[in-house]
Design goal:
Radius of gyration: 40 Å
CATH architecture of the largest domain: Orthogonal Bundle
Number of strands: 6
Order of helices and strands: HEHHEEHHEHHEEHHH
CATH topology of the largest domain: Arc Repressor Mutant, subunit A
Distance between the termini: 156 Å
Largest sheet: 3 strands, antiparallel
CATH class of the largest domain: Mainly Alpha
Strand content: 5-15%
Structural class: mainly alpha
Strand order of the largest sheet: 1-3-2
Number of domains: 3
Number of helices: 10
CATH superfamily of the largest domain: Winged helix-like DNA-binding domain superfamily/Winged helix DNA-binding domain
Length: about 270
């Protein structure tokens, strides 16, 4: 019996994609049953399985059948051609179709796919708007997930795509993404403090003793400068008041002297 035919039968009967490792385990398990011919494939390597499946995929494509064999996210499966979608959709029902992603969700998903791992702040830096709601939607759809934390103050979470993302877009791996050199070259800064928070367990960066001391010295200098300015304004105010008081007193003395002279001349 041919290995290619066995693999085709397994994939045709499977309700989910199967990786080369999973197919290898199936062959080994079948060989342990002791049935005829099954023991001949128990030691088949995963690399050999992959090579046979690639050959099978080429043969099916050349036959121009309504279905073809594809490898998505490292797993193999038979899928129908898109031009048969109306009949397949009538079979499975429209309600089973996944909802389409909105334009903001697709834009954010593209940024994550090409620049992963990436923080929310860096996504917002590229898009110019908040991505909190979009990230929630993409996470619920299992298209993105938290893959780690950035090495910046606050340790914000970083996001990347999932295996579901590859299955959704029919990609074997991320290397099959369409070329988007412009998006890959968008510079991303590393802010000292994150623009968004990604969890309650994140703590602000603690200042060093030297930074605290310097900050206190700066505050003291500003207070001293403010006091000096107030003192100068007060001195200027006192001198002006003193000069005005002297002028008023001299005018009063002159008027009083004139009144005394007039009184002495009166008989």
């Amino acid at each position: 019996m041919d290995l290619k035919d066995i693999l085709e039968a397994i994939l045709f009967s499977s309700q989910k994609p199967l990786s080369a490792k999973e197919l290898q385990d199936i062959l080994k398990q079948a060989g342990e049953t002791g049935e005829s011919d099954s023991a001949d494939f128990t030691k088949t390597k995963a690399a050999a399985i992959t090579k046979v499946l690639e050959t099978l995929a080429e043969e099916v494509a050349q036959l121009n059948r309504p279905h073809h064999l594809v490898c998505v996210a490292g797993a193999w499966q038979f899928v129908t051609q898109t031009n048969y979608a109306p009949w397949v959709r009538a079979l499975v029902g429209i309600k089973n179709r996944p909802t389409r992603l909105s334009k903001p969700a697709l834009e954010t998903l593209a940024i994550i796919a090409y620049r992963q791992p990436i923080t929310r702040a860096q996504m917002e830096e590229i898009r110019g708007v908040s991505v909190d709601g979009v990230i929630g939607t993409l996470s619920e759809r299992l298209l993105v997930e938290v893959v780690g934390r950035a090495d910046v103050p606050g340790r914000p979470q970083t996001y990347g795509t999932t295996q579901t993302f590859l299955e959704y877009f029919g990609l074997r791996n991320l290397e099959e993404l369409p070329d988007a050199e412009e998006l890959r070259q968008v510079p991303l800064s590393k802010p000292e403090t994150p623009l968004t928070t990604d969890g309650d367990d994140e703590e602000p960066e603690q200042m060093s003793l030297e930074e605290v001391t310097q900050a206190k010295d700066n505050d003291a200098s500003q207070v001293a400068q403010s006091v000096d300015e107030d003192s100068e304004e007060e001195e200027d105010y006192d001198e002006d008041d003193f000069e005005e008081d002297d002028e008023d007193e001299e005018e009063f003395d002159e008027e009083e002297g004139e009144e005394v002279e007039e009184a002495s001349e009166t008989p």
